[in-house]
Amino acid sequence: MSSFPSLRMRRGRVSPWMRDLLAEHRLHPSDFIWPLFVCEGSDCEEPIGSLPGVSRWSIDKLPGRVRLAAELGIPCVALFPNTPNDLRTDDAKEALNKDNLICRAIKAIKDAVPDVGVLTDVALDPYTSHGHDGLIDIAGNVINDDTVNVLADQALVQAEAGADIVAPSDMMDGRVAAIRAALEGAGHQNVAIMAYAAKYASAFYGPFREAVGSQGRLKGDKRGYQMNPANIEEALREVELDLAEGADFVMVKPGLPYLDVVARVKDAFGVPTFVYQVSGEYAMIEAAAAAGAGDRDALILETLLAFKRAGATGVLTYHALDAARLIAG
User: Is residue 253 among the annotated active site residues?
Assistant: First the structure.
């Protein structure tokens, strides 16, 4: 009689059908939110150098992109504007313009593809001349409470344009409560808030700043309001506060370097928890594949599966289309 243990774990891996049968986590296109960058102009596609395969799109091009997402089963897109330079000011007043780039983009998508969700970014950095997510004083410090007032108005403008989810990414204290009060007061009870509850002061955001035109504008850094990458208990406190203030969903950003945060948040609160696979993460995968360091398709799916395994409800990813096609086979 063999002395080998009666249970051989490899029996569950011997064939593709067995591996599929026993898989604990699965990816589906409905797990993805696809970020799209919007620019002024007509019939425009502007490739972004540090994000190979990603472009800015003029508003007339957006419905076609969103229809493609819908055909692949992706339920929601996230919009980020590249505001023209002459409209960027210290007080970010363009953020409150009801006819600004992002509001026109929302309306175009909702008119053409009404069944796809639209998520919008609530923050001032695409509109400020100094590149910060809020208003600043003469010393260059971001002013929390004055910024919150503007953010609440910005969220309301986006909701009125047709946004389904507003996503404050600024990390100001108290902004979720102010936004929720503004939405409820204006009759937008069904507009959801996805709070960037644990947004870290990360080195992985560089390509995004190129995409929205804020690269090189920033005076100082954002460590005074974005989270210290060393901290996790602080992230749990941030999530708890945002939920208490009325957030429907929470987000951890970036993604892969913060899987432990995703897992702790989901375990602690059991709420819909999203993760943003940010621009630097996307760029690393593309660079690795281009250098022959790994198979691109496998790298995409393995990293996305890691988010699901950590407990993420869904993922904002620039690889959404690629992943959806791969899943479909």
Answer: yes
